[in-house]
Amino acid sequence: MSDAKRRLVVLDPAPASAGPDRSAEIDDDHFHDQCGVFGVFDHPEAANMTYLGLHALQHRGQESAGIVTTDGEKLYAHRAMGLVQDSFNQEQLGHLPGRIAIGHVRYSTAGGSHIKNAQPIAVDYARGSLAVCHNGNLTNAEDIRAELEARGSIFQSGTDTEVFVHLVAASKEIAIEDRIADALTKVKGAYSLLFMTEEAVIAVRDPMGIRPLCLGILSSKRDAHVVASEPCAFDLIGAEYVRDVEPGEMIVIDATGMRSMRPLPPAPPRMCVFEYVYFARPDSKLGGRSVYDTRKALGRALAKEHPVECDVVVPVPDSGVPAAIGYAAARNVPFEMGLMRSHYVGRTFIEPQESIRHFGVRLKLSPVEPVLRGKRVVVIDDSIVRGTTSRKIVKMVRDAGAREVHLRISSPPTQWPCYYGIDTPTRRELIASSHSVEEITRYVTADSLGYLSLDGMIDTLGGGSSFCHACFSGQYAIPFTAANRRQMRLVGV
After folding, report:
1. Within a domain: residue 309?
2. What is the pLDDT of residues 215-236, one digit of tens each?
3. Catalytic site residue 35?
4. Between β-strands 64-70 and 100-106, what pairing exists: parallel, antiparallel or unpaired?
5. What is the CA radius of gyration of the chain?
6. CATH number assigned to the domain comprising residue 224
7. Does this model's pTM top 0.90?
8. What residue numbers bound the domain in which 108 lies?
9. Which residue among 132, 175, 270, 399 is least enclosed by CB atoms within 10 Å?
10. Does 143 lie in the same domain as 42?
11. In terms of domains, do 111 and 244 share one?
12. Which one of 35, 214, 232, 468 is the catalytic residue?
């Protein structure tokens, strides 16, 4: 394509580095959501609004960030490795013109940690320019990719998201929403998607609604529309939450207004239950339900199932706080912040040559000795993945003088990997997949251990038929392809 016809402008291209070293992360034994998406239509400061929206969604991905805008004629893209505030400055945002923008924060599952996999992906193709960003995973991405490559397609990244780009570009439909709908008929899996052309933003959620997506409005700016993974992104910019994007719904926002369509047949809703357990920010509402209140209710249910005589209830900050409040209230026991979290720990660190006991976990958490000494302590966390961090936390609490340490988990044992947009270990790395509760109790050196039961969690959430809980139950909502099954055998599932 000649420069005269080029419609996509990539600003400040980053060097071809591999990005942050995932191996350098400190004692982070949680599941990670893949990413967060944000979009705005018809706002004079679209890039700035998107920057702020992504900042509010930073908890969903800390590996890379990107924004693409359009002035109605060209697309302008900037992507970088690292946190949102480190990836953009005022000068860079000033070079992202236009009233339309979409943005993305990423924590890699498919594709690995590299600038080439940062999103949104933006391309020029025969019918114009297109940008897309994605939260989720496709279960048949490898099959589609192999088929497209056999036809001559050339992929520039390792992400599932690029599959959408190729399918849209190859579609024989005319209107962009029809091309997207055509592409969606070929994919399976979990996806909350934002597409952007020179003139429109298009939001799509998969038929089961596994990953969240919601709509908002900035009425102070000519009713500018906003779309985000979570409504907490609206609060920061003063937007009003309108509603969730429904499972299987496509919403087109352009100069004619907003219109909704249903390009795919309906399916039973299966929103990821881990959004309520850990991923979503506590101040968000998903499916009309307060995440904070839900986590407190999970703590109350945990107290009912696994009571223990204790003097104090202590959360593992920050994710264990609401459940610990619920547990303490149900048991009529004091809630105390017996562990303090450092919010200034980066992704890399320099470990001293001299061995320091529990160095990694102490870099993030510090015990408050007066709260713990001589007490029977209940420590509340949202999940146990490998068990290594739980073991260090229990020992830290005991070293601070606790007389007894009882570990309580506000979700069931995590026994299965996720294939719908969560970065999870292989099944053999999940301690609960091969060890009993008694064995895990001994490993983490707790006096007792109690998990919330699957039934208890589902009852608290109001019924299991509307949630995906495969990581706890092994009941996967979407069938796997042959390529998936080959991969599962390779990784020990």
Report:
1. yes
2. 999 977 678 999 999 999 999 9
3. yes
4. antiparallel
5. 23
6. 3.60.20.10
7. no
8. 8-270
9. 175
10. yes
11. yes
12. 35
